Amino acid sequence: MLNVGVIMFVTHKSIDIVTLAKKVEALGFESLWLPEHPIIPVHMETRFPGTPDGILPEVYKQLVDPFVALGAAAAVTRQLKVATGICLVPERNPLLLAKEVATVDLISGGRFLFGIGAGWLREEAEILGADFPHRWTQTRDAVLAMKELWTKDQASYRGSHVSFPPLWCYPKPVQKPHPPIILGGEAKNVLKRVVEWGDGWMPRGNNLQVEEITAARKELDRLAREAGRDPKSLTITIFRAEPDPAS
Length: 247
Hints:
α2 runs parallel beside α3, α3 (94-108) crosses α5 and α6 crosses α7. The chain has 247 residues and is α/β, with parallel strands linked by helices. It is globular and about 55 Å long. The chain has one domain (5-179): Luciferase-like domain (TIM Barrel, Alpha-Beta Barrel). It starts with a strand and ends in an 11-residue tail after the last strand. The protein has helices at residues 17-26, 66-75, 94-108, 122-127, 135-151, 190-197, 210-226; strands at residues 5-7, 31-34, 81-88, 112-117, 155-158, 163-167, 181-184, 200-202, 235-236.
């Protein structure tokens, strides 16, 4: 079954999140996705990969916090799934992030989708404490740590980027064992990452052809079977697509 969602760059100048969420649900969409960039450095050398000139669109500087906004969206809807598209995991403290994810899942009654990525803007990532050259290793470490926090009364973890002694962290997510973890990007090893510690893949539709996505689905299924996972439990969400001029 094909489900269609909406992604919106919500800012202080855009439609407000409550009005948006109500409208998206009323129109019958499956989900509402919000991106994040906590900060944008004034001075940066990194080029924006989404435009030919490499200039960052102004809207990226103005984004609201996705978890606060999604909590508000969840409170005024009943069926709409609320999702990060994407959360920049290396830029967040995993202990606080685990609580934010679980809280939105609780408020929504189990309607949260955890879309994640490792980021592309080096200057932003470094200011927020990310190990940019090893950001996917850091992301994996954070996700494994959060799984401990979500599934155990007293959780502890020791990894290369995240470590903490036994502690309590509540609430726990409504969805068991946790909300779906959906990895963004088109990196070479992304499908292996999905099978190892994720629940879905979210490639950008404007970066891939239909044939490439079809081939990736077959490869994802193969890797899942080899790892002893049910291929049907792993989803593919096409994140953004170029508009059809004919429509």
